[in-house]
Amino acid sequence: MKLKSFIKKIEQKYPLNLAYDWDNVGLIVGDSEREVKKIMVCLEANEKVVDEAINKDIDLIITHHPFIFSKLKKVTTLDLKGKLIHKLIKSNISIYSMHTNFDIAFDGLNDYFVEMLELESVKILDKTSSENLYKLAVYVPKTHIDDVRIALGNSGAGHLGNYKDCSFTTEGEGRFKPCDGANPYIGETNALESVHEVKVETIVPQKILDKVISSMIKSHPYEEVAYDLYKLENKGEAIGLGRYGKLKSKMTFKDLGMILKEKLDIKHLRVVGELDSVVSKVAIVTGSGADMVKKAYKSGCDVLITGDMKYHDAQDTLDMGMKVIDCGHFDTEKVFSDIMFDYIKNEFDIDVIKSDINLNPFDII
Question: Coiled-coil annotation: which residues (predicted)?
Answer without folding.
Answer: none
